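User: Just a sanity check before I run the rest of the batch. Below are the structure tokens for the first item. I only need the designed sequence back.
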């Protein structure tokens, strides 16, 4: 039987203690500050909307470049326990990046280990399963260039 993820208590506490303010603070600056406090690596000038889920187990494996925008209700993952929870394999952990000026529309999902390139646009409601090249626009599930 595969093992589910284990993280040190101090990492888990840091990640979860600031979840609610990171989701619902009234300004983007505050939401960014609380996501940083959770361990997410966020450059300057980033906009983060309401109720953005950034990996709970490994927030420190998510990097958001300068002037990127993450619209409301999006989820950026850095781990995948689907195989571990079903006993079919190990947990997958990957570094996930939204590069400078990248844009995630409302309610996007970015899977673990994916890079959204600089100034790329991810259309509202997309599921990003593969890297997105810089200066391109993708949409759908799985997200494809449009
Ligand atoms: C991606 C986006 C920028 C494209 O806008 P656009 O360049 O005007 O593109 P169009 O509306 O002409 O659509 C081009 C094609 O992409 C498709 N498309 C656009 N948005 C899509 C989406 N969210 N999901 C799936 N397909 C989409 C259109 O259906 C169209 O397909 P077709 O050529 O087969 O008819 C825009 O649709 C979008 O999702 N913006 C993000 C909005 C948002 O979340 N804002 C957050 C607050 S700032």
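Assistant: Here's the designed sequence for the first item:
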């Amino acid at each position: 039987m595969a093992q589910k993820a284990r993280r040190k208590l101090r990492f888990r506490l840091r990640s979860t203690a600031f979840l609610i303010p990171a989701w619902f603070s009234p300004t983007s600056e505050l939401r960014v500050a609380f996501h940083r406090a959770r361990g997410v690596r966020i450059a300057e000038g980033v906009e983060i909307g309401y109720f953005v889920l950034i990996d709970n187990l490994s927030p420190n494996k998510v990097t958001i470049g300068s002037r990127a925008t993450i619209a409301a209700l999006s989820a950026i993952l850095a781990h995948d326990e689907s195989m571990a929870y079903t006993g079919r394999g190990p947990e997958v952990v990957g570094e996930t990046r939204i590069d400078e000026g990248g844009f995630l529309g409302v309610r996007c999902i970015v899977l673990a280990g994916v890079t959204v390139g600089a100034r790329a646009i991810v259309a509202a409601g997309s599921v990003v399963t593969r890297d997105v090249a810089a200066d391109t626009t993708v949409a759908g599930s799985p997200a494809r260039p449009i």
